[in-house]
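Homework help board

Subject: predicted structure for assignment chain

Our instructor gave us this sequence and asked us to write out the predicted structure in token form, then describe one feature. I got the tokens but I'm not sure how to describe them. Can anyone check?
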Amino acid sequence: MKKILSMMMLLVLSMLLFACQEGTVNQGEYPEFTENDIVEISNEELIKLLSTAVEKTTTDDQGIYMSKGDISFNYSEIINSTDEENIMQHITNYIADIDFEGYFSTTDVFADTAINFEANLDVEISNETKNNNETTASTKASFDGSLGVYLLDQCLYLDSDINVENMNRGITTTSSISGKQMLDVSSYLEDLTYPNIDEEVSSLLPEDFDLDEIEGLLEAFPVFNVYEVNQVTYIEFKVDKEAIKDHLVDGYSYLYTMIAGEGPTQGQVDNVIQFISEVDDNFDELDFSLSIAFSSNGLLQIASKCNISMDVEEGSLGVNYSYTLDKVSEMKDNPDDLENYTEVDSIESLIYGFISNIY
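My token output:
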């Protein structure tokens, strides 16, 4: 028993040491910060850090990466209509929960790219018609299962296992989207190349763009924070309802002046104020965050999360997602039965074989 306890303590200690290791991040998780992690810097220093982050993001683009995400979506719409004798209601609901984890490796040659992507999904679409509060028609379709996509040695493998359920006027039918298929995609990959990320970013900026010019914008619209944790620098961009209400007018005015050479008209400012009022009225929740983590060793993680809850015309919308992209040391193992997948001869055959199982 003493030996077992010692081994357990050693395991816990090793995990704690790894979690506190300098120059590492919690892979697959949006970082959490405390007030003690905040780095107080000037806007000039922030601009230099932003420049460093962009440089590391655009030049450190080869290796193995893990992407992980979780998406929840719901939309509800109620349309009412009346005549002299009836009160009609048509109710539509869309609900989706999707989580995924993907690994991909990049090299100098696009054709040597490897991918391991797996997702779980639960999607439901329903419609209901009511007449004087009595249901007169209803339909529902649901999809529940998993999907795997693997790219290895210029061959694409698709593994689907999704249950499909359709309900119409109380009658339910079931089917499935299942199968394991393989397609040689070497001919599709041979002419593809990776985009030059540095050039893509540069093309989005004006030719005479100067980072020093945005110092005033950062003062007018303060949505960046810098954190330091275990010798990892994090730059976080965060926008919520309060930031929009407090700073959007100043940020818009400064950006407009920087681009146009003169300030906006009062009518343009009034339009921004009206937009802010509509955001405040229609959004119950609005929160978006983006974090870039890097150290002296290069880019470590890009992470984002978003939470939206709002009223839309005759309904409501909710979106909640989190996403991380981490640089990792090795790929996830592929399924050990890839050689047993059924080979098809074209992309069209692969897609048709996938969706034809629905019917």
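Reply (TA_rk): Your tokens look well-formed. For the description, you could write something like this. The chain has eight helices and twelve strands. That's the kind of observation they're looking for.
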